[in-house]
Design a protein that fits this description.
By secondary structure, this protein is α+β, with helices and mostly antiparallel strands. The chain contains 2 helices and 10 strands; from the N terminus they run ααββββββββββ. Strands 1, 2, 3, 5 and 8 form a 5-stranded mixed sheet that branches. The longest helix is centred in the first third of the chain and has 20 residues. The N and C termini lie far apart (74 Å). Bound molecules: dinuclear copper ion.
């Protein structure tokens, strides 16, 4: 093999390595699906059936005092728009995306949850103090990315209402 051929060969290797490196999302999503088969959801039918139908979104109180929060991220909002949780209890977050890759963060905390279409992202959160937290998307997800934000209201545990099913997805009960 002469030098010129070797150089061409190395250049091709470099190019073939660069393509996947810039296509993180396309590789990442199918790979995660493969690893986490049970956490697969179809982004096209989220609103129609299964865990992420509208009536099931928001805050669900568990018998052990913890809460489960189910959300959808989509261009360019989080659903529900306002989440109510009690302070000082474990918050089991389950969230998926209806379209692009998003990242859910809570201002004033270190929590950051990456959200991929087709996969349920899970996180264990806990908010020690009552207060209002802005929730902000930190993954560039398109033209409206910078407007993609919503709210999390944390209320003292002893003031947290028993949520009726219709109140799970709003902060109106507060
Ligand atoms: Cu969603 Cu940026």
């Amino acid at each position: 093999m002469n030098w010129r051929k070797l150089r061409t060969f190395l250049l091709w290797v470099l190019v073939l390595c660069l393509i996947p490196a810039t296509r993180y999302y396309q590789i990442d999503v199918p790979f995660l699906r493969f690893l986490e088969g049970s956490r697969h959801v179809d982004p096209l039918t989220l609103h129609l059936s299964g865990e992420f139908v509208e009536s099931n979104l928001g805050t669900e109180q568990n018998p052990d005092g913890s809460v489960t929060v189910r959300m959808i991220a989509q261009q360019y909002l989080f659903i529900p728009h306002c989440i109510l949780v009690p302070a000082g209890v474990p918050v089991h977050l389950r969230i998926t995306s209806a379209d692009a890759v998003h990242s859910l963060t809570f201002n004033g905390t270190d929590y950051a949850v990456k959200i991929l279409p087709g996969t349920i992202s899970q996180a264990q959160l806990q908010f020690p103090r009552a207060g209002d937290y802005k929730t902000v998307c930190r993954e560039f997800c398109g033209a409206g990315h910078y407007a993609m934000r919503s709210e999390l209201k944390v209320v003292p545990r002893n003031q947290f209402p028993v949520l009726r099913p219709a109140e799970r997805g709003t902060c109106a009960a507060q």
